[in-house]
């Protein structure tokens, strides 16, 4: 059991037969009453996000998620396919269970989290390198300040990039917010 006071972003727990991962955490102290804990959680089995409220001193069931390294092979409209590099065993995971799956690149190494034998979550690296496939050309002389333009990346994500980035350039993207970090 784990106290709700110890819940932080990224912590996983079980409640009512469902497995949740904390997305955000807020500790609310009332004037004369006890503190309340408000967490936004993602159900790792269904992919849905919800908010839960707990009173100070409540407990939830702590769980252990085993991390295993896999190679991403490909994805279709229903599943993403991975291969264990040690045993060459292939595994398919429903796309609905993989938030952030748009950052996967074929042949790339990823970490999957398992609850028992069930693949339950995808751990993305904080930054990935992706190629820009579409953007408008930057205008010369318009670089006095931080000016950004729209760009479409090879994975279909739209982001904003500085004027000097052109089509075909590779950039490093933060997987937490989808924002431009720097040129690769």
Query: How do the SSEs run, as a string of H and E?
Result: EEEEEEEEEEEEEEEE
Label the CATH architecture of the largest domain: Roll
Q: How many DSSP-defined strands?
A: 16
Total individual domains:
3
Structural class: mainly beta
Question: How many H/I helical runs?
Answer: 0
Proportion of helical residues: under 10%
**Largest sheet, order of strands side by side?**
1-6-2-3-4-5
Strand content: over 45%
Description:
- This protein has 184 residues and is an all-beta fold.
- The chain folds into 3 domains: 2-62, SH3 type barrels, CATH 2.30.30; 66-123, Nucleic acid-binding proteins (OB fold (Dihydrolipoamide Acetyltransferase, E2P)); 127-183, Nucleic acid-binding proteins (OB fold (Dihydrolipoamide Acetyltransferase, E2P), Beta Barrel), CATH 2.40.50.140.
- It has no helices and 16 strands.
- It has strands at 2-3, 12-15, 18-28, 36-43, 49-55, 59-62, 66-75, 79-83, 90-94, 109-115, 118-123, 127-135, 148-153, 158-162, 170-174, 180-183.
- The protein has a 6-stranded antiparallel beta sheet, with no helix packed on it. It has a 5-stranded antiparallel beta sheet with strand order 9-8-7-10-11, with no helix packed on it. A 5-stranded antiparallel beta sheet has the order 14-13-12-15-16, with no helix packed on it.
- A hairpin with a 6-residue loop joins strand 8 (79-83) and strand 9.
- The protein is flat.
- The model has no long low-confidence stretch (mean pLDDT 87).
């Amino acid at each position: 059991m784990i106290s709700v006071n110890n819940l932080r972003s990224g912590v996983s727990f079980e409640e009512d037969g469902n497995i949740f991962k904390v997305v955000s955490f807020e500790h609310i102290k009332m004037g004369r009453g006890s503190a309340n804990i408000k967490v936004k959680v993602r159900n790792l089995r269904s992919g849905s996000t919800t908010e839960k409220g707990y009173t100070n001193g409540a407990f939830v069931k702590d769980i252990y998620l085993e991390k295993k390294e896999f190679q991403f092979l490909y994805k279709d409209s229903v599943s993403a396919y991975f291969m264990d590099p040690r045993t060459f065993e292939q595994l398919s995971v429903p796309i609905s269970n993989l938030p952030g799956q748009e950052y996967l690149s074929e042949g790339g190494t990823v970490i999957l989290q398992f609850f028992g034998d069930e693949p339950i979550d995808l751990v993305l690296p904080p930054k990935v390198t992706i190629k820009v496939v579409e953007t408008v050309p930057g205008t010369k002389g318009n670089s006095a300040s931080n000016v950004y333009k729209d760009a479409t990346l090879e994975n279909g994500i739209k982001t904003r990039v500085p004027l000097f980035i052109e089509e075909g350039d590779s950039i490093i993207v933060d997987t937490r917010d989808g924002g431009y970090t720097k040129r690769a």
